[in-house]
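Morning F.,

Quick status update on the modeling queue. The single chain you submitted on Monday has been processed. Sequence for confirmation:
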Amino acid sequence: MKTESTYQPPFTITALALRHIADISEAVGRISALTDGALDLRLRRLNRIRTIQGSLAIEGNTLSEEQITAILDGKHVIAPPREIQEARNAIAAYDLLEDWNPEREKDMLKAHGVLMASLIDNAGSYRQGGVGVMGEKTVVHMAPPAGRVPHLMGDLFHWLQKADHHPLVASSAFHYEFEFIHPFADGNGRMGRLWQTLILSRWNPLFLRIPVESLVYAHQQEYYNALQQSTQQGLVTPFLEFMLTMIRDAVLGSTPQVAPQVTPQVEQLLRILSGAGEGGLSRKELLDASGLRDRKSFADRWLAPALAAGFIEMTLPGKPHSRLQRYKITPSGNRILGLK
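Structure tokens below.
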């Protein structure tokens, strides 16, 4: 007789996590109450493009938001064929998101089949061989043997079905455990992020149009560091705190898009960039113009929310940490200033 799984991802709910959960819940309620139907459709399309671009960029895809928009509109794009196929697959997967049940393992296999179609031979099936996660020069994580994957994934889905944790916690824990198992030969990163979005969207459909992935991309190295810290500690907690921070910042950054309000920091950043011209400004130039000395505060309270909301953009979106990176105000950012 098969015994019921007692599997439980190891994590603790810290004071920081609780604060983030409270902040996110409050902001989600406020945004949901303010959302206008017609505006929501436009935002959903815009932010889905940002979501796809961010998630693919983490995996090395160099397509810009403009190129992904063109692909979505059926236009011809000059780019590496594999990157175009990745974008087409991601567009198809996010279009089908509402058709899948996050607690159903078969739906995840279907989703992987869509996301990795024509990219790998066994799309939609668990891997048959060993895989490792590479750092710059070394393997930073060896995934469990392929023979254990079906059992581990079965336990993970059984836990998700029974979990009574807040969806913000459950989705983040699932995301980490999924990446630890690394159940597919390829596409694990984008699948983990897709499935967390799906879990969150069942809590509140608002998450179908909040581009959490684009903010994760802006903090790509921190994302990898959080995964590695959780693996080293044997606890999901570091990754849980990181993802809650990203979700909080993405949600708060989306608030101005449904109401003509921005934080004073974001508004000042937009005003600085509004007079910068087509070439934009570097991070150092922005920091100097803001009068701040705390680089982390500037990144967290000024730059990240403005990027997540789509009010500013990188001139080199495929190289977020390039020394040549500059930032420009977008039409959406100009519109926000016009509403003031």
